[in-house]
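From the pipeline queue, job 12 of 40. The input is one protein chain; the requested action is below.

Action: predict structure.
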Amino acid sequence: MYSAKNISKNQIPLKEQVESLEIVADMLCMNDASKLFMLENFYKDYNIPTGFLPKYEHNGSRQRSENKRRLKT
């Protein structure tokens, strides 16, 4: 178990940090769009590419919704 004192993000393995995000998201009953938004911001903090994540847009409320803009065929 980790002590809250003097812990920087680099001292905890990335995998464990991602798992803690999942725990927090579950505790807060976050929807999938909000979870992805949180994960995207986390990855950006570590300069990890996020292009593979689905894109969601802010819909004016506290929730996020899937970006419905698609290319016409």
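Job complete. Residues 1-7 have pLDDT under 50 and may be disordered.
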